[in-house]
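Notes from hallway chat w/ T.B., transcribed later so I don't forget. T.B. wanted the structure written out for a chain they're using in a teaching module, and asked if we could keep both sequence and structure tokens in one place. Agreed to drop them here.
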Amino acid sequence: MKNWYWSVSQTPEELHAMLSELGELFGLKQGTGENTVTFERIAAEGVVSEVEFLSDNAAVVRYNTVSAAARGIGSVMANIAGRQSTGFTMLGIMVDLSRNLVFTVPAMIKMFRRLALLGFNTVLLYCEDTYELPGEPAFGMMRGRYSAEEIRTMDDAAAAVGIELIGCIQTLGHMAQILQWEQAYGDIKDTASVMRVDVERTHTLIGKMLDFWSENLRSRRIHVGMDETHDLGRGRYLDRNGYKSGFELFTRQLNLVNDACIKRGLKPMIWSDMFFRLGNPAQSYYVLDSNIPEEVRAAIPENVELVYWDYYTLDQNFYEKFIEKHRELNGEPLMGAGVWIWSRLWYDQELSGNANRACINGCRNKNLKEIFFTMWGDDGAICHWDSAWTGLTEASDLAYGIDDEDAVARRYNALTGSDYFINNLPCRLHHPNKRSNRENIMPAMHNSDLAIFWDDILQGLGYRNLQVIDKNLIPEIINEFKTILKALEPHRNDCGGGNLNYAWLLTRYMLNKMLCRQKLEEAYWAGDKAALKVLAYQELPQLAEYFSEVMSEFRKQWLAVGKVFGLETMQHRMGGQKERILEAAVRINEYLAGVYDKLEELEQPLPEKAERMAIYCDMASGSVMV
């Protein structure tokens, strides 16, 4: 990588800390050298970043915000000249730190530096319980919770590169992680994941939550959640108080939380879905004619900002209409889009790219000023997080009005030292299809990679679900895996962006798992005992070894960026998967020896209406997994 030098005396002081921080990871050094970069602050509307190369060895970055200057540095490193601008005053991401993977502080700091070079200026830390509260030892216990000191350290590092850290918490639902501790929090439990709104202890706890973020972050903004509380008031609240409408309980809680925020000088935002859900009998979010009563509209505090979250819609027109619905409800919203890493093994380029183009263009047409991209960790944060840097690079360019894959590739290479197109190859492990037999299931949920990865080799729920969707999917996926495996082979040592050796190991394992299942079905129904013997003695033991290598690499990359807590969940699951592969060999041997006259797991047909979401609890067993 080419080194660029900057001078303290010729650089605006507001950039010194950022340049020093970035210099620890990238080819950016203080002092004099062959290649020099200078900076000029300009007056301009929006966020403007302009790079001019005066020669091969000299560049000037013109900017009007610190984040624009950082993006300009990224452009210099990528040898991209010209003026770039965005109308988004907030360009951020939300990092899920509540579904097993809690990043270490050094890993977060590295993330901030990379994000700054892409032009991001905001990071929301989604923490349901993964932070310490005084007098609450069960809050975030064994979950990798952050201390106040760790949050302050991250805030300092983020601020140095022009990024605002915002706490993103929950103050009503999504609290199952603490409510499981009955002795500690049974008195505030309404349902399994929703806190009671009628007890003082709930609001005392919320006060402690708000104090934590207020005292340890510079930002005066906070996201207080309050989404997806479908069963609000229908548990212990109902037992003790009788029925109250969801609207009434929700708005009461919102106003109490808002008052607590105002008391601490905080400006809250919430997810908007519950207003729309509670306004229609089906409790659907994306309903343009949802009837929200006037008294509910009036009960929404004026200073509470609504976040419209949508990572599924591919229609720009819908985004524009729904933005207007939010404005009618409560003023100017924020947009919560998505970089799809949840319920996936690798970043989903197709879904993210298509949804974000429609979303960003819709926001731009409607002059929406604030957008962030959620990065959830559903199904245990199994997705390789660093695979998303291709998506983050693309999303930042789209936000700056640039839809040029070659430009994205150059910026990504400067950021990671790796090849954009090679890193997007494993995106195809999630085989996109729009051929569901159930129209009400969004294409986003057909995560074929996890259907295969978590599939029980004997029960074959994932394998057979793919057949239910389309009988041609199995051979298509097998051929695609073979193509990916061959293409990744020369790049296994490349870990600058995503860990391509891990991607190769995943592909090899899932390809062979598909082939083993295919052979098992064919040999069993053909009565080919010789083929079954080869499967039991050679191919299934080999498959178990392939999976052991996947597990080992998964552990290594987890501990390279994450706290140790949460890893145990994935190892429990993966260890069970390996044991079931070995059990399949035992079952086949017993069948061949006449101990059993059939393999019952293969005998039960899967009806067409049995299609399921492809996550661990759906694929690992026909039983409900607790």
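Follow-up for T.B.: Residues 308 and 335 are 5 Å apart (CA to CA). Might be a good example for the class.
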